[in-house]
Every structure is written in structure tokens, then in C-alpha cells.
Amino acid sequence: MLNVEKIREDFPILETGVIYLDSTATSLTPKQVLSEMEKYYLEYRANVGRGIYELAERATSAYEAARKRIASFINAIKGEVVMVKNTTEAINLVAHSLKWRKGDKIVTTLLEHHSNYLPWLRCAERYGVKVEAIKPTPQGMIEVDDLEKTVDDSTKLVAMTHVSNVLGSITPVEEAARIAHEHGALLLIDGAQSVPHIKVDVAKLGCDFLAFSGHKMCGPTGSGALYISREAWEELDPVFVGGGTVESVEEGRFTLLKGPARFEAGTPGIAEAIGLKRAVEYLDALNMDHVVKHERKLGERMYEGLCSMEGVEVYGPEPKYKLGITSFNVEGLDPHEVALILDASAKIAVRSGMHCAQPLIKQVLKKPKGTVRASLYIYNTKEEVEKFLSAMEELTRSALKRK
Ligand code: PMP
């Protein structure tokens, strides 16, 4: 079990009294991550992969150690990890570095965050590839049967989220890997909402790409990573080139480096990578199995509490099929009104609106104004969930009275 009271001491922002239920958008940052980044700025501030003086060597080895540690967090033993600034950048990197042929097919879903949908539409415009999106069930589940029917021999890439940022539903990624590979396609997993919460093992999943953001998992903003399998490596031609990516340059030609630096053009987020390394150490010390257990327990209580309230509509599957994210609406109120009332009445931070997932919200859930979303992480307590539910009771009572 997590020692939540002790964990909370690492997050001074909680002393403001905020009940932070928006970790799906971005998590809070523990002191340990900040002091690691500060150490870089104050003690060995230099660029990486360039100078040979002592400070530069120290910065380079800290940066490469960060890459290695982040890779081991997802068990990336059979591939490379490229440092990026977020999930969106990682997915766009794949979209524009893959060697497409006209007529190639990309299979994705309508469960996706815009960051795992728009890049594929852009590929269709630019490279003449086709995009097919699988519709989830009304509860936000992706059926293996639909994957079987949609992925065929013309499919070059299957791009799917691991966990929905709106509903918390978990997708069948291992089956997706099997189906994609049976047809010679590659599998990209958007891990923005899974890597921070559950143990993700790329060797076990068998995916070719895994994209995730550091800022959703206790790391700094502007940090993230892209795992690339050995098989997929050959299929990529870096979209950005320049300083830091080359082995040699002559007039009129260049040879790129062999390793992940070939994808990291320009000075990278050095403090950010170092901060993300500290964040994965922090999470590993808590134990990811305990992290998910904690969130699921609180999530279940939140889901059941909301489901039992008159005038509240809850979306998504039952708790056993999802992580600690709950989307809902209150009859007679816009999602933004609910968020503003919770903030004003109880200092509760929840997200409201479209959650960067308009196809899901408009076409599948059919909620043109969006939803309210409450999400949980390591620092949330049972008491906070109870306070949230009491605030919701009060809010729905007055909304029903006004009807
Ligand atoms: N995919 C999913 C599932 C997400 O939840 C998010 C962030 N809400 C993203 C992609 C985009 O992440 P970022 O803004 O860090 O690029």
C-alpha cells in the first residue's frame, strides 16, 4: 500500500488546500524532481554530446544515464528510447519519419486524444495514405474483433491509445500487437495515460512505438520519451536533422548518427530528461503495482458514488475495465459550470470540456458540450474523494431544485 500522507509531504502545492483531481491533464511535481533539476542548473550546467571539458562530460553522462533509466522503467531492452518534449511530439515524429508508400493504411480508433489522431490525418493529406478509425463501444472499449476486421495486409501502422484520457478504459494492446504483426504492420501505443499509472513493459506488450509524457508522471513539463523497437528502427528517416544528429558532414551531404541522438536535433531538454529520470525513480520506489491499486480503489469509490447520485450521468466502463479516470455530467448544468462550482465551493480542480478528444465526445458519447472529468493519482486520499462526493451531492441537489 502507498503511504499517501508521506507522499503528500513531497508535494508542497497540496498545502494550498487544493483537491487536485486533474492529474490526467498534468500531474503535480515532487520536490525530489525539482532538486535534481536544480542540481544540474547549479552544479554542472553545460550542453550534451558536444564539449569534452569536465562539466560537459558530466552533463552528457547524466543525460545518457537518464535515457537508460527511463528505458529500464518501460523495460526497453529490445530497442531505443528517444527523448522528446511530450507525447504529441513523439507521435508526430513517427508520423513524419516513417517511410510511407501511397496506399498504405493506418488503423486508429475514435477513442484517441487529438494528438494520436490529427498526425494520421495529416499523413493522409501529405503522403496519400488511408486512415481508418475503429469505433469504440458506447462504454469506450475497443473490441478485438474490430481490430481483426480492420487491420489487413495493406496496413502499415496501427496507432492506438493504451488508456483513454476521457473514460480511463483500457484497450487490448497485446492483441493489437499480435494482429498488427500478423499483417506485417507496426504498432504505436499512446502511453500518455498508462505509463504514469501501471507497469508498462514494452517487451511484453510487443509494441513497436510507445509514446509518453513526463509531465503526467511527476516529471517536468517539456519531458517525454518515444520507444522504438529494433524492427521499426529501419522504417524511420528522421524528420528533423541538424546539430547533434550527425556523424559527419561534407559539403552537400551528411551521415546521421546510428543511435537515438539521430532523432534529437538541436539542444535537447537536458534538465527535463534528468528530472524525468528522478520521477521514474520516485515512481519505482513507490512500486507501480501499489500505485495502480491505490488509484483503482479510490476510483471505484468515486465511480460508485457518482453512479448513485440522482441527476448524474457517468460514462465509460465499470471500474474493473478502467483506471482512475471518471467522466460525467450533471443534468441541467454545463460541464464548465460544474467545474467552476466545485472550484469555488470546495477548491476542487477537475477538468471540463472536450478533453482534446472531440470524435469520442461528439460521435460516441454524443455530448456536444463535453463532460466533467475527475482523475486520481498517488497523492489523492480517501478523504478527498469523500469531500468531492459531498460537494457533488450538494451541487446536484441545488441543480435539481432549480429544475
Ligand atoms: N494522448 C493522451 C491519451 C493524452 O491524455 C494526452 C494528454 N492529455 C496526450 C496524448 C498529449 O500529451 P502531451 O500534451 O503531453 O503531448
Element layout with pairings:
Blueprint: H1 4-9, E1 19-20, H2 31-43, H3 54-73, E2 79-84, H4 87-97, E3 105-109, H5 118-127, E4 130-134, H6 144-150, E5 155-161, H7 173-182, E6 186-190, H8 202-205, E7 209-213, E8 224-229, H9 230-233, E9 246-250, E10 253-256, H10 270-286, H11 288-307, E11 312-315, E12 325-330, H12 335-346, E13 348-349, E14 351-353, H13 358-364, E15 371-375, H14 382-402
Parallel strand pairs: 1-13, 3-4, 3-5, 5-6, 6-7
Antiparallel strand pairs: 2-8, 7-8, 9-10, 11-12, 12-15, 14-15
The structure holds 4'-deoxy-4'-aminopyridoxal-5'-phosphate.
Give keywords:
alpha/beta, 4-stranded antiparallel β-sheet, 15 strands
Task: Characterise the protein shown here.
The protein is α/β, with parallel strands linked by helices. The chain contains 14 helices and 15 strands. The protein has helices spanning 4-9, 31-43, 54-73, 87-97, 118-127, 144-150, 173-182, 202-205, 230-233, 270-286, 288-307, 335-346, 358-364, 382-402; strands at residues 19-20, 79-84, 105-109, 130-134, 155-161, 186-190, 209-213, 224-229, 246-250, 253-256, 312-315, 325-330, 348-349, 351-353, 371-375. The protein has a 7-stranded mixed sheet, with helices on both faces. A 4-stranded antiparallel sheet has the order 11-12-15-14, with helices on one face. A two-stranded parallel sheet has the order 1-13. Strand 5, helix 7 (173-182) and strand 6 (186-190) form a beta-alpha-beta unit. It is globular and about 75 Å long. The chain starts with a helix and ends with a helix. The structure holds 4'-deoxy-4'-aminopyridoxal-5'-phosphate (PMP). 4'-deoxy-4'-aminopyridoxal-5'-phosphate binds at residues 25, 86-88, 113, 115-116, 161, 165, 190, 192-193, 213, 356.
